[in-house]
Amino acid sequence: MKAVKPQRLNKKIEPYFFLLPLILILLLFLVVPIVKAAIMSFQYYYVTKPSPAGHYFVGLKNYQSVLSDEYFFNSVKVTLIYIVVTVAGRYIVGFITALLLNTKFLGRGLARALIIIPWAVPEVVACLVWILMYDQDYGIINFLLNNAGILSQNIAYLQDPTVALPAAMVVNIWKGFPYVAIMLLAGMQSVSSDLYEAADIDGATTFQKIRYITVPSIKAVSTTVFLLLIIWTIKDYAIAYVLTKGGPSRATELLTIYIQQTGFKYFDFGKAAAAGMLMLLVSLAFTFFYFKVLSKEEG
After folding, report:
1. Is 268 within 8 Å of 262 (Cβ atoms)?
2. Would you say 13 and 241 are in contact if contact means Cβ atoms under 8 Å apart?
């Protein structure tokens, strides 16, 4: 049996030393918190009502408490509506924007650069601007709609339970559509111009070219974008929280806000951890599906 030379052994180990800082960061800030939360989900962890026995194990009691909580199912319903509407909205607006940016017009380069601004603006900053725009008395949205004759009286967008969730969705769509537009635009630019020229010769309309050439050609990009949007929206927190803090009357209480409120408002960290684990399982399912689709496309 040949002995491994020290120099050769060092070359094999060397790459792992470069990965070591990243591995330590992932362990410290990702793996350890997840494991800790998983353990807490099986423990009594009610901070305001400490037990003499400490944080003892309670089995599935926290999960039973979550699954019997009507507010949990309300947050699940709100989250599902939020995901469906915002993912569809961002894709549709992004697709239309990509089509426009893929055509030739004066100032197209500048338009492509400016379109990324909503995506680049920090979420908190964007929400603060939209809060001013949504203001019932001084907001520009009520001002424009009143002047256009669409409204007869001002609307309290962030205080009305029937309007607050759609208002938060609008901000989410505005914030996220540039990413979709840029991704789809990259896909559209990879489509051969010969296909469009052949369609023109055959007398195809613009709609027919989009339907039979553009959409099938960017199917792989669209699938990836859709799955990423779903994964990101499941864990969305900042927009709804900054705008309404989950209110009014829990109308915008996403699952992430429910978990945060359960843990840091009611201090039931065991229940919050259980809800977090359930959300993590759903996120992992979509992530697994995403990588499966991605590997299939690459293969």
Report:
1. yes
2. no
Kindly write down the DSSP assignment for every residue of 174-218, as one continuous string: HHHHHHHHHHHHHHHHTS-HHHHHHHHHTT--HHHHIIIIIHHHT
Q: Which of 171, 168, 209 is nearest to 79 (CA)?
A: 168
Token reading at 19 = 């990965």
**Measuring CA to CA, which residue among 157, 176, 178 is closest to residue 168?**
157
Closest C-alpha among 161, 165, 167 to residue 81: 165
Report the CATH fold assignment for 66-298. MetI-like fold (1.10.3720)
Band (pLDDT 50/70/90 cuts) for residue 169 is very high
Residues 85-104 pLDDT 10s: 999 999 999 999 999 999 98
What's the whole-number mean pLDDT along residues 147-170?
93
Q: What's the rounded Cα separation, in Å, for the pair 113 and 181?
A: 12
